[in-house]
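Hi C.,

You asked whether I'd gotten around to modeling the 210-residue construct. I have! Everything is below, sequence then structure, no commentary in between.
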Amino acid sequence: MSTVRVVARIRPHQNNESSRDGIVTAISPNEAIAAPPTMVRIPSFKNKNEDYTFQFSAVYDQDSGQQTIFDKEISPTLKHLFNGIDVTIFAYGVTGTGKTHTMRGGKSLADRGIIPRLLSSTYRRCRKLEKDSRGQTSVDITLSYYEIYNDKVFDLLEPPEKRTVAGLPLRDNGGKTVVVGLTKRPCESLKEFEKLYDQANVNRSTSATK
C-alpha cells in the first residue's frame, strides 16, 4: 500500500503585514456546490489579467486551525500506523511560511501542532491496546531526531561536539533507507517527548523563524 497526499496550507497574515499583501487564494473546483477547496490560485506578475492555479489533494485557508488540519489529514493515518504501515508526514516551504507552527505549534492546547497531537493520540491508543489485551500486548515508543544540513545527516539527540564532519552514513536495508548509528531514546509520554524535543532543538544548525 502506498498513498501520497499533497496538502497546501495558507498561513494568515502576521501583525506586520497588510491584508492587501495576500495573493494566494484557496478555490474549489466546483464553487456552485460549495465543495472543499483543492486548488490554489496565484496571480501572474507578468500579466495582471492572468492567474495560475495549482491542484492539491486538499487546501486549507487562513482560517483553518490546528485541530482542523489534524482531524482531516493526520488522525486518519493512525489506523495505518497500528496496522504496521509506515507513515511519513513532513512540511515543505520557504522561510516564514509556517512549517514549524504547523508541525510543532505553540504551548497552548489550541496551538499544538501535528507532532504533539499525533503523539497524544498514539499514546492513548497504546494504552487502550494494552488495557484491552489485559497485559498480553505491550507497546514501546522510541524517538529519533535528525537534521539534514548541507546534504549531511546529523543526530540531534547527540551534542554537536560528538558529530563527525561527514555526518552519519546512510544504508539500504531491504528497500528502506536507514541512518546508521542514529540514536533511539525511549519516549513513554508526551512529557518525555517535550523534554527530548527541546533538548534536541538546541543542537539544530537551523532554527525556527522568529
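If it helps when you're writing up: The longest strand covers residues 39-43.

Thanks,
B.
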